Write the structure tokens for this entry.
Amino acid sequence: MRGLWAWVRQFPPQYRADLLFLAAGIRFVSKDETIRYLLELNEGVLSALEPDGVPIEHVVYIETDSAGSSSGVMLNLLRDRGNLERRGARFLHSRDGAGIQKITRQLGRGALIYVDDFAGTGKQFVRSRRRVAEFVAGSFSEFFLLPCICEEARQPIEEVGVVAEAGFTHRKTERPLLDESPILSAEKRERLVQLSIENWGRRKVALGFEGLGTHVVFYRNAPNSTPLLFRGHLGQRP
């Protein structure tokens, strides 16, 4: 509560009630919830692969290397909690082109599973996946497992042939500072957006990466698409 008060009192008094309302609506994803989503999604994919004759020994889990990615942490959680190494799955990094080529050529067919915690626009994932695709030898279905995906990310990911399996989809209507959301009145929303712009410049900057204005925070980080209003002190001082 002390931290919440320290945060909100940075702003003029006339904004504070609306800011507290905004903060109360943030969806917090705990570590336990994150693990549950990853395990359930993974087992669902593995079960779907079995009738197609794809055993876990032919499944390759890939850590992506996009900027700010939590992929390595998420993959480690899934690997350890799902006993995937003991069950015979393979693990590679998206930068390991030689390893990807060697393993996929050896297996011939199977599945590639990418893991992360969040996708905003999907652009960073698509770039990482493009590098992987250059080295894949054989026939492999592809899946992207993550607790949360923004609705904007689904199309670019699916357009490159990857199936996105998410715990939940974060829709524009659930983000109070976007015009598509009915959570705030247009007047209140514009006041808060203008407050953001006054402190951090352009609208796209103030509302986070690509102006997504997301309203989801994870136990270990906040996506860079979170509005800057929530990211600490004015001017982004530590």
